[in-house]
Design goal:
Length: 333
């Protein structure tokens, strides 16, 4: 069996987790890593047993040994680095959020289609056994018709203007970094909302330190999503239907259990396989798509990333966050 060979751009915090996860997938291996500094690439390669290291993203993108690249740089560079790899006919698994805005996501999809190269957003939560089971339960009608979703993600990251989380050039802000998870959940279960009303509070750099949104769908469903970098919040989910409710506990986005309460009073605790790393499920999806010669995942298609990025744009416009890159590009309008 030929293994799928992956490369990593940006050997930072999340790249480490990806490098550990790939060891859990028999059909995948790491072939190279690229850093803007050769020493960081070689150190990372040594720690994770990767055969090749590059001090240039451009040289890395040309490596013929690589089938797919994991783009693990800050979101302000997702589009640039993904397109570089797509143009060299590499598949791309791009960390969430896919890019800074919908216009960038469209450009990335265009590059994937033009070069017939695979592109998927690294929304690892979507591929967890948790989401598979929760989705199945919701689609089966066992909680009736979904009427309301409440979902949050809050964690304390003290203000630091140079950090990826607050620096606008790097794509700083709570919404794009962690708000993307509760928003993903709502759009995955209910599709495109008819209306979004949002409010947020900006940090001294102009990035959002907190953001809250109410979503409404034309059939009467609604959702409340919240995210903040200023304090830890319950970081839980409730999906309420006419015949029951699903409750996912703390750190729901990477959880291995949930509770299913029926309206008649019975509550079932559902325990899934214990969470180990969690990135291996999305890596298996990428490997399977590449084996089939696909350029997108049927489970998490390009249209979903576009939908998600448009909702993020709508919210961001209302709370008044604009990225430096958009000042010249004039998006979102
Ligand atoms: N799925 C998840 O659970 C999860 C969790 C955390 C983060 N993420 C996502 O992963 C991405 C990276 O997050 P991270 O926390 O790993 O970031 P990070 O450690 O701050 O940065 C990742 C790497 O990006 C490279 N980079 C390239 N251009 C850069 C620039 N202009 N400024 C700073 N670094 C630059 C750096 O590597 P070199 O300089 O060595 O090339 C750096 O080590 C983000 O988009 C984030 O949303 C996902």
């Amino acid at each position: 069996m030929k293994k799928t060979t992956s490369g990593i751009i940006g050997p930072g915090r999340i790249a480490k987790r990806f490098a550990e996860a790939i060891k859990l997938v028999d059909e995948a291996e790491l072939g190279a890593v690229a850093s803007r500094a050769g020493s960081r690439a070689w150190n990372f390669a040594k720690i994770h047993g990767i055969p090749t290291a590059y001090d240039s993203y451009e040289a890395f993108a040309k490596d013929p040994a690589l089938d797919v690249v994991y783009v693990a740089t800050p979101h302000g560079y997702h589009a640039e680095h993904s397109i570089l790899c797509l143009q060299h006919r590499k598949g791309v698994l791009c960390e969430k959020p896919m890019a800074l805005n919908a216009q960038e996501v469209e450009t990335m999809i265009h590059a994937a289609v033009t070069n017939q190269s695979f592109l998927m957003e690294g929304l690892w939560t979507h591929f967890l056994p948790l989401m598979r089971e929760v989705t199945k339960l919701c689609k089966s009608g066992k909680i009736g018709t979904i009427k309301y979703i409440r979902s949050d993600f809050g964690t304390l990251f003290p203000f630091d203007p140079s950090s990826r989380l607050y620096n606008l050039r790097l794509g700083g802000g709570a919404l794009l970094d962690i708000g993307v998870y509760p928003l993903y959940l709502c759009l995955h279960l209910l599709g495109e909302p008819e209306n979004i009303v949002a409010a947020g509070r900006l940090s001294p750099t102009g990035s959002d330190e907190s953001c809250h949104a109410i979503l409404q769908w034309k059939d009467g469903q609604s959702a409340v999503v919240s995210c903040t970098l200023t304090c830890a919040t319950s970081t839980t989910v409730e999906i309420s239907g006419t015949e029951g409710m699903i409750r996912i506990p703390n750190r729901w986005f990477g959880c291995d259990q949930f509770e299913w309460r029926r309206t008649n009073g019975k509550t079932q605790h559902v325990q899934l396989e214990p969470m180990v790393n969690g990135f291996q499920y999305q890596i298996r999806e990428v490997t399977s798509c590449l084996e089939k010669g696909l350029i997108e995942s049927p489970s998490l298609p390009h249209t979903f990333s576009l939908l998600l990025s448009r909702a993020l744009d709508t919210i961001r416009k209302q709370i008044g966050v604009r990225y430096e890159q958009e000042e010249s590009a004039k998006v979102p309008s």
